[in-house]
Amino acid sequence: MVRKPRDCAITSWAEVKEAHQYPDDKDVSMEKDVVSRREHIQNMCRTHVHTGGRVSDPYIHVPSNLSMCLVPKVGCTFWKRVFFHLYGDSGKTPGQVSTPLDIDRLYVHFGGNRTPKTVSLNTQPGRDVIFNSTRVMFARDPWSRLWSAYVDKFILPDSWLDHGQNIVQLRPKLGVSGDEGPNSNHTRDAKQMFQRFVCADDITFSEFLNYAFQVSIDPHWSPIHELCDPCIFRPHVVGKMETFARDARYVLVTSGLGHLLQGLDHASHVQDELQLLTRYHFRMLEQRPLLRACLDDVSLARRLWRAFQLNGYIAPGRGFPAELLTRELQGATPSQSAALVTSLVTAAATDSAFGHAQWAAVRHRHMVAAYRAVSKDLLAAMQERFALDFDLFQYDREPADIFTVLP
Q1: What's the rounded Cα separation, in Å, for the pair 359 and 353?
Q2: Which helix (H) or strand (E) holds 138?
Q3: Are residues 99 and 85 in contact, defined by beta-carbon separation less than 8 angstroms?
Q4: What backbone phi and psi angles, to 5 degrees, belong to 61?
């Protein structure tokens, strides 16, 4: 039997703190934010009755009465691992998994499906289950979300062979980079031509933004309301990436899943992210022969190092250990390469010793610099494309540190 939904505020945060020994100076503002965010969404939905969005099939865990609408680049991998863990679907033997963080990124995105974890709102049974559950979604500042998508998909090679190749072919039409397109008369040797038009390893941030706004509809850079319309989903809790650890704790504890909090802190998140992305990309390199023709192990390691610097995990001035990796990775298997690079990036992040505030500041500084380098027209297109997200989730559509320095 499906349990009736709890009160919209779920439970008193004072009671949660008492039951779980939370310190007085931590998470005390969460319940206030839960109420204010929900009321803001409700008010916005009354005035924006035609948001034009949809709700991707929400994840549901009936025993805890928790449902969640997941959006790429908004903590999606973490929450998928939570649901997979709750259903015992890890791709590993039970003894190998003690927390959701033990479940591999590749498995949750491409491998696991032993137990149904989502339901469709297009069916009456699905609607009955979801609308009698505690509904949760997470939002993220659109400026940060698109920058993160660019780093993950184009600084790293995840989208070189699909979206990247599309951008290269469309360069004359998009007219951003000013570089020669595939029909150029410039002479190039075969290797240069392959690197440029097959590998697509030089996509600029401006090219990506133009492509995202003019051509491509992809969940990694589509507005949140188009993927998980809060006016349809009607969430009880709207968490935010900017306060992710606090908000995730609230959701888990108030859903009776506080035992999953192990490892949910900034230091553990950094270590997990470094290991997860390094293993993922070396495995991807092994499984995609065409990508292997674009990158060797050292080149991939250099890309990972750069992405981790842009994300604030490794100090900006820390040099890439090219000589060491060139020597040590020669003849290594993919798993050996991944293990060595993981140990090096983990050590570099530990030595950088960035706390959460410093990490966020470094990451923000890189993002702001990237947006300052794009045109006013692109910034205006960004504001227009994500106008409803800015309004629904209370983000600044004209951040001063991006706009005030423009000529």
Answers
A1: 9
A2: strand 134-139
A3: yes
A4: -125, 100
Q: What is the pLDDT confidence band of residue 20, given thresholds at 50, 70 and 90?
A: very low
Whether the predicted pLDDT of 91 surpasses 90: no
Cβ pair 234, 202 in contact under 8 A: no
CA angle 45, 124, 225 (to 5 degrees): 30
C-alpha distances in angstroms, 184 versus 27, 51, 190, 242, 313?
57, 43, 14, 44, 39
Identify the pLDDT of residue 90: 82
Give CA–CA dist 260/263, Å, rounded. 8
- Whole-angstrom CA distances from 197 to 86, 166, 180, 209, 305 are 44, 9, 11, 19, 24
249/246 Cα distance (integer angstroms): 5
Which pLDDT does position 89 carry in this prediction? 86
Mean pLDDT value across the chain: 85
Token pair listed for 360: 């966020």
* pLDDT value, residue 277: 92
Cα separation values, 347 from 313, 320, 333, 352, Å = 11, 12, 21, 9
